[in-house]
Specification:
Helix content is 74%, strand content 0%. The protein has 180 residues and is mainly alpha-helical. The chain has one domain. Helix 1 runs parallel beside helix 5. The protein is globular. It starts with a helix and ends in a 10-residue tail after the last helix. The C terminus is likely disordered.
Length: 180
């Protein structure tokens, strides 16, 4: 299940913001729902093992239940509400921001919980360290991609000052001036 939060969910989040298509929302929703179903299967297996090994009160099990049964369904509902208002107004709303930020929190929580799962399962320290390094790398790359992609605050055609002076210029954002 760690791969869902390490690779699949971040890829789905970046995909929807990177490809412009009329059917992208349907693709995004289907893809993320598929990943959620995989997580439900992982949760089922995890619950079975936790009950058998009397580890249901372990932080990994509790956090996993919260993420899979509360965070992710709420994220899907927020996505639906965001899409409803987006279609109605042809632009994002406050629901858009809530959906995006809640998704980022959910993915980060899942990455942390995957680490707790490695510790709980007694994986060697080397595996735990390797996962941590990989998770930090993927999370950092994801954050950088979001900053580069959303340097205009998510407002298409209305750029704001980029977080660093040359980002807007380096990527040819409309309205950016090339320094002399």
């Amino acid at each position: 299940m760690g791969l869902a939060f390490l690779v699949a969910f971040p890829a789905g989040a970046l995909l929807v913001r990177s490809i412009q298509s009329k059917s992208m929302m349907k693709i995004h929703a289907t893809y993320q729902l598929s990943m959620y179903l995989i997580c439900l299967a992982g949760l089922s297996l995890g619950l079975y093992l936790a009950i058998q090994q009397d580890k249901l009160s372990n932080p990994h099990a509790i956090f996993g239940l919260i993420i899979i049964l509360l965070f992710l369904p709420a994220q899907a509902a927020l996505g639906y509400v965001h899409h409803y208002y987006y279609k109605k107004k042809s632009r994002g709303s406050s629901w858009t921001n809530v959906h995006i930020q809640y998704g980022r929190i959910s993915i980060t929580s899942g990455l942390i919980n995957a680490f707790l799962g490695l510790r709980l399962s007694g994986q060697p320290v080397g595996i735990q360290v390797a996962y941590t390094i990989l998770a930090l790398f993927v999370w950092s790359a994801w954050v950088i991609a979001v900053v580069l992609r959303d340097g205009n605050g998510g407002r298409r055609g209305k750029p704001r000052s980029p977080p660093w002076p040359l980002i807007g210029n380096a990527f040819g954002r409309p309205g950016s001036q090339v320094p002399a």
